[in-house]
Write a structure and sequence with these properties.
Layout (H helix, E strand, L loop, with lengths): L11 H35 L11 H4 L4 H24 L23
Length: about 110
Protein backbone atom coordinates (compact mmCIF):
# COMPACT_ATOMS: atom_id res chain seq x y z
CA UNK A 1 0.00 0.00 0.00
CA UNK A 2 1.37 3.38 -1.01
CA UNK A 3 0.50 6.55 0.84
CA UNK A 4 0.77 8.28 -2.53
CA UNK A 5 -2.29 6.31 -3.69
CA UNK A 6 -4.71 7.73 -1.11
CA UNK A 7 -6.74 9.38 -3.87
CA UNK A 8 -6.99 6.05 -5.72
CA UNK A 9 -5.15 7.40 -8.78
CA UNK A 10 -1.57 6.79 -9.81
CA UNK A 11 -0.28 10.02 -11.37
CA UNK A 12 2.93 10.39 -13.36
CA UNK A 13 4.55 12.12 -10.38
CA UNK A 14 3.61 9.21 -8.09
CA UNK A 15 5.00 6.75 -10.60
CA UNK A 16 8.30 8.65 -10.73
CA UNK A 17 8.29 8.86 -6.92
CA UNK A 18 7.87 5.08 -6.69
CA UNK A 19 10.69 4.51 -9.21
CA UNK A 20 13.09 6.77 -7.32
CA UNK A 21 12.12 5.18 -4.00
CA UNK A 22 12.82 1.68 -5.30
CA UNK A 23 16.11 2.85 -6.81
CA UNK A 24 17.13 4.47 -3.51
CA UNK A 25 16.29 1.31 -1.59
CA UNK A 26 18.39 -0.72 -4.04
CA UNK A 27 21.30 1.72 -3.68
CA UNK A 28 21.15 1.52 0.12
CA UNK A 29 21.10 -2.28 0.06
CA UNK A 30 23.99 -2.32 -2.41
CA UNK A 31 26.09 -0.05 -0.18
CA UNK A 32 25.22 -2.06 2.92
CA UNK A 33 26.05 -5.40 1.34
CA UNK A 34 29.26 -4.16 -0.26
CA UNK A 35 30.50 -2.65 3.01
CA UNK A 36 29.71 -5.82 4.96
CA UNK A 37 31.32 -8.00 2.29
CA UNK A 38 34.42 -5.82 2.38
CA UNK A 39 34.62 -6.04 6.16
CA UNK A 40 34.19 -9.84 6.03
CA UNK A 41 36.93 -10.21 3.41
CA UNK A 42 39.28 -8.01 5.42
CA UNK A 43 38.57 -10.03 8.57
CA UNK A 44 39.06 -13.35 6.77
CA UNK A 45 42.33 -12.05 5.35
CA UNK A 46 43.94 -10.64 8.50
CA UNK A 47 41.86 -11.93 11.47
CA UNK A 48 41.26 -8.33 12.51
CA UNK A 49 37.85 -6.66 12.17
CA UNK A 50 38.09 -2.95 11.33
CA UNK A 51 35.79 -0.57 13.18
CA UNK A 52 32.34 0.47 11.89
CA UNK A 53 33.98 3.05 9.61
CA UNK A 54 36.36 0.50 8.12
CA UNK A 55 39.39 2.00 9.85
CA UNK A 56 42.19 0.02 11.47
CA UNK A 57 44.50 1.48 14.13
CA UNK A 58 48.04 2.31 12.97
CA UNK A 59 49.54 -0.49 15.07
CA UNK A 60 47.41 -3.01 13.13
CA UNK A 61 48.06 -1.37 9.75
CA UNK A 62 51.81 -1.62 10.25
CA UNK A 63 51.69 -5.38 10.99
CA UNK A 64 50.02 -6.61 7.78
CA UNK A 65 52.16 -9.12 5.94
CA UNK A 66 52.99 -9.01 2.25
CA UNK A 67 50.81 -12.10 1.76
CA UNK A 68 47.79 -10.32 3.28
CA UNK A 69 48.32 -7.31 1.03
CA UNK A 70 48.71 -9.52 -2.05
CA UNK A 71 45.53 -11.45 -1.17
CA UNK A 72 43.56 -8.20 -0.93
CA UNK A 73 44.91 -7.10 -4.31
CA UNK A 74 43.91 -10.46 -5.81
CA UNK A 75 40.40 -10.18 -4.37
CA UNK A 76 40.13 -6.65 -5.76
CA UNK A 77 41.25 -7.89 -9.18
CA UNK A 78 38.70 -10.73 -9.12
CA UNK A 79 35.91 -8.29 -8.27
CA UNK A 80 37.07 -5.86 -10.97
CA UNK A 81 37.00 -8.65 -13.57
CA UNK A 82 33.60 -9.78 -12.30
CA UNK A 83 32.25 -6.22 -12.56
CA UNK A 84 33.68 -5.86 -16.05
CA UNK A 85 32.05 -9.12 -17.14
CA UNK A 86 28.72 -8.09 -15.62
CA UNK A 87 28.90 -4.78 -17.44
CA UNK A 88 29.93 -6.39 -20.73
CA UNK A 89 27.29 -9.14 -20.69
CA UNK A 90 24.49 -7.02 -19.28
CA UNK A 91 21.70 -6.91 -21.84
CA UNK A 92 19.64 -4.26 -20.05
CA UNK A 93 20.03 -1.31 -22.41
CA UNK A 94 17.17 0.67 -20.81
CA UNK A 95 19.01 0.94 -17.48
CA UNK A 96 22.29 2.24 -18.96
CA UNK A 97 23.56 5.12 -16.84
CA UNK A 98 20.74 4.72 -14.34
CA UNK A 99 21.59 6.07 -10.94
CA UNK A 100 24.17 8.56 -12.13
CA UNK A 101 22.04 11.70 -12.11
CA UNK A 102 20.87 11.75 -15.71
CA UNK A 103 18.41 10.11 -18.01
CA UNK A 104 15.25 10.85 -16.04
CA UNK A 105 13.74 13.56 -18.27
CA UNK A 106 11.15 15.80 -16.66
CA UNK A 107 11.49 14.29 -13.20
CA UNK A 108 14.64 16.32 -12.62
CA UNK A 109 14.09 19.17 -15.07
CA UNK A 110 14.90 19.55 -18.72
CA UNK A 111 17.70 22.10 -18.48
CA UNK A 112 21.38 21.63 -18.61
Amino acid sequence: YNISMLDGKHSEFEELWDEETVESENDIMGLTLSFNLTQAIRYANSNYLPNQEGIEPMEVLSTHTDAEIQRLWCVALVFAIFLGCMNYFSGDEDDAGHGHGHGHGQAHGQGG
